[in-house]
Description:
Structural class: mainly alpha
Order of helices and strands: HHHHHHHHHHHHHH
Number of domains: 3
Oligomer: single chain
Number of helices: 14
Number of strands: 0
Amino acid sequence: MISNEKDMLTYGVATLEFFKEQNSALKIAKFLQSQYPQFHGGFALEGSVHFAKDNILKAIECYEKVTRIEPDIEDGWFIHSNLLSNDQRYEKALDVLILYFSHLKKVGKEPSSMAWNNLGWYLYLNGYNKDSLRCFKKAIELNKDNYTAWSNLDLFYSDYLDLKNAIAIYDATIKNAKYADLLAFSNYLKNYINYIETALDKTDFYYRLGYVLDLSSEKANNEERNNLREQSILSYEKFINNSVDNNLIDKAKSHVHKLKKKIIN
């Protein structure tokens, strides 16, 4: 039996995510807003419905209300800024994170590792490179297992320094990562490669992807292991066929040779 606003929110989320009934979920959201106007959940649910319908502008409006009603909920700020970023309004997304940091200072709370990472990301998108670097490093200082921050730091070094510095980050950070984190990292890299427009810019990231998939295969179960090894080989081979870095090409060839031997055995 639904007896309070939190139970109704849970029901509304289930209606949207599991049953895919967007109109029914929207009705629940509107009811929550009318009955509990100071409860952020009704606006968050409506925002989720609009996002599912690809109506980013309405989703943004809803999350503006979420952060006003309940400014202590971190995810509200993160989703709000992410929606603005999806609409390519990077300056506004940065403004939202800066406002969140101001709120935290006002109430005497410290930003989380992910908050520092997200601030760094939007600083990076807006060209504030030195500030973004400090934020990524702060995020990692607070949580060495924040692989999103590690990957963003890698992107920073890739864009502004050189590939070898970026690869060194991998060597120093992800060898001891959990299997689930490695898979998440590999998916992140796949999506980023698809985002990159030119073949030349994609090349270096094929080495990274091959490396992460290689590490993933060592921690996978028997059913997944060879599949990950084959994916790793494909990524390394794309790097080998397009790179001009002879040192890394030799390393990639060595990885491919070892992976093929493991598949045969």
